[in-house]
Amino acid sequence: MTADQGVAVCMSTHIAAAVLDAAFMREADWPVAKSLKLIRPSLPILLLDGRDATRRDGLPVWIDAVATKESPEDVLARLKELLARGSAAGAGSALG
Asked: How many domains does one find in the chain?
């Protein structure tokens, strides 16, 4: 699947979050993450990284969180945090 096809699938289907693998991303322009955020700014994007889940330097604003792909527990915890943040933001905007 190409990056464009992946973005099209994500946009034609309701998804709660996108999980992207850093090993398959080109750090120069992050085309998939950027496209997803431009089309749907509220979509949480989790980047799986084999090196360090605490790294933020050099990551574009389109990446909302990073998880260590060697730890399924870390991936689930970060994903739950992102979804909770999204739910809270949605509830806040509905109230205000």
From this structure: 1
Round to whole Å and give the CA distance between 56 and 61.
10
Per-residue model confidence (pLDDT) at position 57: 67
Nearest to 36 by CA among 61, 57, 71, 55: 61
Q: CATH code at 11?
A: 3.40.50.2300
- What residues make up the domain containing 22? 3-95
Distance in angstroms between the alpha carbons of the first and the last residue of the chain: 40
What tens digit of pLDDT does each residue of 21-79 get?
887 766 555 778 888 888 889 999 998 887 665 666 667 788 898 898 888 999 999 99
